[in-house]
Design goal:
Arc Repressor Mutant, subunit A, two-stranded antiparallel ribbon, globular, mainly alpha, 2 strands
């Protein structure tokens, strides 16, 4: 997967933190939710503007 299609960084959005493209949902937020024990399904239900492919791009961004 090419995560660069789904994760962007723009100084005008969240001070340049990496976010899911088309949203203000940061990679950092998703990782914090997962560290707090949230499942992938809980994240997708709570943030309906993102999809499973975008969520997987967050994982790929870490590698």
């Amino acid at each position: 997967m090419d995560w660069t299609e789904h994760i962007v960084s723009d100084n005008g959005v969240l001070l340049g933190k990496p976010v899911i493209k088309g949203t203000r949902i940061s990679v950092e937020l998703v990782l914090e939710l997962m560290a707090d024990g949230w499942t992938e399904q809980q994240i997708l239900e709570s943030y309906p503007t993102i999809n499973q492919t975008q969520l997987r791009a967050v994982y790929a961004h870490l590698l």
